[in-house]
Amino acid sequence: xxxxxxVPVTSVTELEELVGRPLAPARDKTRSSLxxxxxxxxxxxxxCFVATSGADGSLDVSPKGDPAGSLVRVLDDRTIxxxxxxxxxxxxxxxxxxxxxxxxxxxxxxxxxxxxxxxGTATVVRDAPYLADLQVRRHVPTVALEVDVHEVFYHCSKAxxxxxxxxxxxxxxxxxxxxxxxxxxxxxPDDALETLDDYYxxxxxxKIYG
Length: 210
Hints:
Elements: H1 12-19, H2 24-27, H3 36-44, E1 47-53, E2 59-65, E3 73-76, E4 79-83, H4 92-99, E5 102-108, E6 115-126, E7 143-155, H5 158-163, H6 179-186, H7 193-199
Antiparallel strand pairs: 1-2, 1-5, 3-4, 4-7, 5-6, 6-7
């Protein structure tokens, strides 16, 4: 039994009896190189989620965002690169990749329910000749994530439809505490709430590449 009373599913046979088996189009949709349609999708994508695993089995999923055309660069049909932008310097995913190069990426186009999935192996690189082409607001990335593509396929839109993620009428931005309150409660207890409200206020958008 699980900690809360659930019965563990412990075999592929049992799992398939419960969730079923994929139809041929879903089972066989995986490709090993990029199609022209994938290139168009990557050029339009502005958001990517990057999943990595550490040597100890710890996991990380990091969101990456940039204007369309700056989020990812296609180097060839089997290789893409994501520039690293200024952040909190934890670099959890990069630390993981130094131990385990396997990576999973989901690319999102705002307003679209379907997503592009790319799995592969990745290397953190510096001094790449294409980094200068990936500058945003005069910021040239110092490192990038260079991904060797192993699997490419599309996810359908069911998750976004179920969640109503793009339906503005369903949005509830005040359903959880605002960012300043989260930071005060969990990360920066010694800072005044007014200071954090100012930091995460309207001017925060100007800090994202500085």
